[in-house]
What we know:
CATH architecture of the largest domain: 3-Layer(aba) Sandwich
Number of domains: 2
Helix content: 40-55%
Largest sheet: 8 strands, mixed
Oligomer: single chain
CATH superfamily of the largest domain: NAD(P)-binding Rossmann-like Domain
Number of helices: 11
Radius of gyration: 23 Å
Order of helices and strands: EHEEHEHEHEEHEHHHHHH
CATH topology of the largest domain: Rossmann fold
Bound molecules: NADPH dihydro-nicotinamide-adenine-dinucleotide phosphate
Amino acid sequence: MRTTVMGLGKMGRALAAALVDRGHDTTVWNRTPGRLRDAPFTHAVTHAATAEDAVAASDVVVLCLLDFESVVAVLDGVDLRNRTIVNLTTATPAEAAKLSALLTERGADYVDGGIMAIPSMIGTPAAVVLYSGSEQAFRRSESALQAFGEARYLGAAPGMAALNDIAMLTGMYGMFGGFVHAAALVRTEGVAVVEFTETLLVPWLRALFPALVDMAGQIDSGDYTAKESDLSMQVANDGISVVSRAQGVSSELSDPLFALMRRRVEQGFGGDDFPSVVELLS
Ligand code: NDP
């Protein structure tokens, strides 16, 4: 498939390399020329001199630029008729919807994407890229997009990929926050954080992961009746802030969560399971 990659930063270079690896006829363009000078595949791609040439070269045009504004600037005045624009530049759902409206009006089919990977993961089975927007355009481009990793289509609303991307990052940062707090606790007693993480924390989190799906079921159904560990019990035993203080560690990461749990109990939902807290966020 003839594909174009616009934007040869760290991620754009990885995307172009993955397309070349899979044998796609690839054209590249970057605002600052010469970005691929040191890349082993630079001779395997066509270097477009202008954004117009880059878009004209292929039916599927992948953009991976810094932000929404750079995408608007790069495509300004370019003929987009009959082109599939796959925008892998990180965007908000509102920006994705705006771009979709703007570019569709100019004759393009728009697919928005969220990359759930770092550049070194691109082209490996560990990479997942979320897509939303024109389903027809996604299906037409799918065989090329699979070069990047697993291609997940999430629906016609252009902002769905961006929303799910941010939701996944939210879950990730929650886990990272818990991790650094745990690390701060154990190192107060000279415990090696790697040993704690490998032998205790990771196995514990792994054992808990399946419970997330059960919690998700409670949120979908709205039935939070506690099965084993209700909120009243959990806030009564807020050892995290007590022990953190005693060890000289800040509990500023976990305090807001426990404040929500306590508020839910005060509202009369002490017999609920933890996911009931979602009602305070919505
Ligand atoms: P880089 O900073 O390495 O590259 C940025 C790219 O955007 C360069 O090609 C740069 O061109 C171009 N650019 C910036 N401003 C403009 C502009 N006004 N007009 C034209 N081109 C412009 O970033 P990454 O490659 O790491 O990231 C690119 C996108 O991928 C971002 O949206 C990022 O959020 C997303 N992403 C990145 C991940 C990562 O781990 N790197 C992970 C997941 C998503 P020039 O060379 O001329 O400066």
